[in-house]
Amino acid sequence: MIRIESVTKRYADGTVAVDDLTLDIPDGSITVLVGPSGCGKTTTLRMINRMIEPSGGRILLDGQDLAQQPVTALRRSMGYVIQNAGLFQHRTIVDNIATVPRMLGWDRGRARERARELMDRVGLDATLAKRYPYQLSGGQQQRVGVARALAADPPVLLMDEPFSAVDPIVRKGLQAELLRIQSELGKTIVFVTHDIDEAIKLGNMIAVMRTGGHLAQYAPPDELLSAPADAFVEDFLGTDRGIRRLSFFTSAGLDVTATPIVTADADAAQIAERTLPELPYLLVTDADGKPLGWAKAEDLAPRTDAGDGASTEDGASTADLLPHGRPFVLGQDSLRDALDCAVLSPTGWAVAVDGTGKVVGVTSQETIATAIRGAHAGRATKPAEPDADAPDAADTSAAGPAQAPATDGPAPDAPDGDADAPVKAAR
Amino acid sequence: MNQYFDMPSDLQHSYVGLIGLHLQEALLPVLFGLLIALPLALVCSRFSWFYAPVLWVTTVLYAIPSLAFFVVLLDYTGDSTTTVMIPLTVYSLVLLVPAIVEGTRAVSPDTVAAATAMGFGSLRRFVQVELPIAVPAIMAGLRLAAVSSISLVSVGAIIGNEGALGNLLHDGQIYHRDPLIITSVVTTAVLAIVVDGLLVLAQVLLTPWQPHGRRAARRAARAAAVDEPAAPRDAVTDAVPAALEDAVR
């Protein structure tokens, strides 16, 4: 654990960058320092590896005062990732990654082998090993930066706005990748960002800092969204925190119905039988149970009767289907995803699928609203979970979606196994 | 042809011998200058206040005419190539020290911070990170120093036969052999061009990490265009709800 104890950083000109900050950073989880520019978040980060020395207070790593430890050894035991990757442009990718192992005295062969292993881990193609940084895109460079920080397998990873300089799509990929890597490695990560959405997406714990180096609130993201400590935090979080908090509620317990679902070749009797009184539409699936789109019951029925040739009839009906939109994965995605699907759906009903993309049911906005009320009630009776166990739970789930086996889909009523896994990682 | 390449006997060198001597007198000072400039630049990068006085001193030394240098040095080093090479070494400093200091200072702060954070001490960081990345800037200074040194060697003719190819200018005058003057000027110019070309070649070989020429630039552009495999996938999933929204309307 990293313990920041009443740390103050005051510069010679009187500027106070960090003011009496006390923070416990738990092991094996991602702690995000977030705040507007000038709030001292980067200063705090740099005091952890002593690139900046505190002018008051102390920082303990596993009970040891950092100030007592040799500075280069300390830094080599902490990975550091910086905004623009800060790669050594004169060294190949593999040698960039091998830097710290080489300094620790590994022989070249072993260090390079380790570097190639890490390239694979961060999702870099092996053919890039002999390239130079200028030959890589920004996103690829940032992956190299992460690999380089992980090279000597340090227990602590310090990340200073690592994804701020890449475009939003690449950033999203890198964030997902970081969560995946963290689920495999379980490092103690201190992550600095000015982007509250990034903080909520990545952090197990979030420290919101305000200008002048004060800590405004230190809480898990769910608690931050539900109970901001003051007007500053509330303002910083933005307007739609109620909606965003839904990201932390699993869709596992959500009621879905498989009734208004038919295959493309359904006959009139099936259509009549499966039409719900409150929903004049039916979801049409292909033979594998994958959703094709919505159709009005009366549009679907005559066409099925009229046509004999299966292919033409199929083509005709799918052409008239309303798009079903992006379905959500029941049990894996959050209530926010479910609500989003329902809001975007032309019928107002969201389509739930399993990990393989087969439809397990559909659900209405009203049903989702009931689930949201239920989730809120559940949280209210169980006050804020202790922070310590949040990280582990998030870790185990992160690998889930990526590795979901493509076996034959289960029956529609069997959602994914890890029903109560936190949904953060899946988003 | 002989009137161009028959060397007067008082030079005690063949044409090729003069070229060798000229290169030695011109390039050794640049080498010595580099060896002096590197530690100076290290100190300047460590203690930035030290750079201004160093720059001031080297600039003042550069302003001293070589003739004045020779007059002082003749008492110590006599009529020798050393007397020519010492001022040339001093002159090279005014080009090399700023080239190294500014070159290493121009290394991106992110790279420097990353190196520091990885546990590089300041000497190791200077030698292994800042200096290699500053090679293009240093080479620019080195090329200038080498070329100006090659042209300055000729001044050594003033203190006797120490100007190498420059001596031909003097001999051409006293023996009324104009072709020797042409030989001197053309050879000096060709030497400067060849040495400069060799230094450019050296730079290309020393910096495989830099895009050189159009082909390399194209390769870099292509590499950058092939982005994360995740990117297009995300783009597609992002596009779906947008398309749906349009469909709803």
Automatic annotation (TrEMBL), chain A:
EC number: 7.6.2.9
Membrane-traversing stretches: none
Gene3D superfamilies for this protein: P-loop containing nucleotide triphosphate hydrolases
One of the Pfam families matching this protein, by short name: ABC_tran
Entry-linked SMART domains: AAA
Domain ABC transporter span(s) in chain numbering: 2-237
Alphabetized UniProt keyword annotations: ATP-binding, Nucleotide-binding, Transport
Region of interest (Disordered), residue spans: 298-324, 373-427
Source domain of life: Bacteria
Protein name: ABC-type quaternary amine transporter
Naturally occurring in which organism (per UniProt): Actinacidiphila rubida
UniProtKB/TrEMBL annotation, chain B:
Top-level taxon of the source organism: Bacteria
UniProt signal peptide: none
Record's bilayer topology term: Multi-pass membrane protein
Subcellular localization, as worded in the UniProt entry: Cell membrane; Membrane
InterPro entries membership: ABC_transp_perm/SBD, MetI-like, MetI-like_sf
Keywords in alphabetical order: Membrane, Transmembrane, Transmembrane helix, Transport
Entries under Gene3D superfamilies matching the protein: MetI-like
Transmembrane segments: 26-43, 50-72, 84-101, 133-160, 180-206
UniProt-listed GO biological process terms: glycine betaine transport; transmembrane transport
Domain ABC transmembrane type-1 residue range list: 19-199
Family per similarity comment: Belongs to the binding-protein-dependent transport system permease family.
Protein name per the record: Osmoprotectant transport system permease protein
